[in-house]
Specification:
about 80% helix, mainly alpha
């Protein structure tokens, strides 16, 4: 299980660092979304809110890649993963495979580090 957690941590961290940096440096061309997804992304981009989200992605990804404070990294990227899944489910299903991969990697790490989060689910 340690090797699976290591692979999941490195993949998740790498995905968030690369796609987070892409928002600032545009090294991966991304077609603009259409319809409701385009309106949603336009609002995030136009307000500057997207840059705050991308900073959380980058910082969380770097923390995951560093191998230290992994529960903190999961806490930073967890809400982003949920929002990616909701965006893919409700607005633009073309990104759903990546969203599912992110969700599975996150759940794998969450299960591996469940002791760090045990206090959150204790009555």
């Amino acid at each position: 299980m340690k090797i699976v957690a290591l692979i999941a941590r490195l993949l998740l961290g790498l995905i968030f660092v690369v796609f987070g940096l892409n928002a600032f440096f545009h090294f991966i061309p991304m077609p603009p979304p259409q319809g409701a997804a385009g309106a949603f992304m336009g609002a995030l981009f136009g307000s500057g809110y997207l840059y705050a989200i991308k900073l959380f992605e980058i910082v969380g990804g770097v923390v995951l890649l560093s191998g230290r404070y992994i529960p903190l990294g999961l806490t930073l990227v967890g809400p982003v993963v949920v929002n990616i899944l909701f965006y893919d489910l409700f607005l633009d299903r073309s990104g759903l495979p990546l969203g599912i991969v992110l969700g599975l990697l996150s759940v794998t790490l969450l299960l591996h580090y469940r002791q760090a989060f045990a206090g959150l689910v204790r009555a």
